[in-house]
Amino acid sequence: MVLSTTSVKGDFFTSLKNLSLNGGVQLDVQKNTNNAINTLVPNTLSHDFGIYSTLDYDREKIGLNTGVRLDYKKIHCSQQNYHESFSSINSSLGVFLKHKSHLLRLTYSGSFRAPHVSELFSNGLHHGTNRYEIGKVDLDIEKSHQFDIKYQWSSDHLGFVLNPFTQYIHNFIAINPSDSLYKNIYRIYHYSQFNRVNIWGFELSA
Questions:
Q1: By the 8 A CB rule, do 61 and 93 touch?
Q2: What is the distance between the alpha carbons of residues 205 and 9, in angstroms, rounded to a whole number?
Q3: For residue 9, with 0-12 CB atoms within 10 Å meaning exposed, 13-18 middle and 19 or more buried, which class applies?
Q4: Tens of pLDDT along 152-189?
Q5: What is the pTM of this model?
Q6: What does the pLDDT read at residue 155?
Q7: What's phi and psi for 118, nearest 5 deg?
Q8: Shortest CA distance to 154 belongs to which of 106, 94, 201, 99?
Q9: Cβ atoms < 10 Å from Cβ of 40
């Protein structure tokens, strides 16, 4: 397999008093060409375009961080007669408060992910994982919403961080084992999509 990637990226940055603005554009073109008889994924061509901007405000005891990104992805696969495009808007918003040695931060992030070529078209033996993988061509965009609360305290010699979070994922893409074997050796795995997945927990460090 020959994998070629071309990337073009441009950024800008400006600041004014307590505000800073950052933004940019990015274009990626990726082409996968097989040069072997036994393949995992067919020949594919994908284009990814993104434009983004972030804004940061920081003034002594209070601050704000926000960002937005527009993504567009198009995938071509003639062998599968597949020509689909995906578009999404990713965003984030965070507020933090500082008082002496205490810091409290509240954050929301919304992210969207188009399915990968391997998730769509896999149909072969993956030598890196020693399993036979089968994709699913009707996968949709995976959508995630996450909320975080972070409390941090620190002194000259000690520190404490508590970070509870919850994440809701719609159309979650996963790969699952089956009871079947390929050549009676390799477990067969299928890509699938779950309507909703909820992940929650916390991180604690001291």
A1: no
A2: 37
A3: exposed
A4: 998 878 899 999 999 999 999 999 999 999 999 999 99
A5: 0.85
A6: 83
A7: -65, -30
A8: 99
A9: 21
